[in-house]
Amino acid sequence: MARTDIADLDDTSLDQRLTETREELFNLRFRRATGQLENGAAIKGARREVARILTELRRREIVEAEAHLQENRR
């Protein structure tokens, strides 16, 4: 999922997608450990998607905190 697609999701959808991707990553690692994984690059892709989602959630958190700070300064 591209960054623009992730930015379009709401917080609930992002949390759900994060949970799904972490489960997928766990399964990929398990399959690698048992020798059943043919595409090792899938792990890298899943790790990057987790990072993208976490980055977007953190970006939103910072924007919200800055907005709250601006309100308190008035």
Radius of gyration: 16 Å
Poorly predicted ranges (pLDDT <50, ≥5 residues)? Answer: none
- According to CATH, the fold-level topology is Helix Hairpins
Percent in strands: under 5%
For the terminal residues, how far apart are their CA atoms?
39 Å
The H/E string reads HHH
Task: Please tally the β strands and state the result.
Answer: 0
Rough outline: elongated
List the keywords:
74 residues, single chain, mainly alpha, Helix Hairpins, 0% strand
Describe it for me?
This protein has 74 residues and is mainly α. It has a single domain, classed as Orthogonal Bundle (Helix Hairpins), CATH 1.10.287.310. The chain is built from three helices and no strands. The longest helix is centred in the C-terminal third of the chain and has 33 residues, at 41-73. The N and C termini lie far apart (39 Å).
Would you summarize the structure shown here?
By secondary structure, the protein is mainly α.
Topology:
Elements: H1 3-8, H2 11-33, H3 41-73
Helix pairs in contact: 2-3
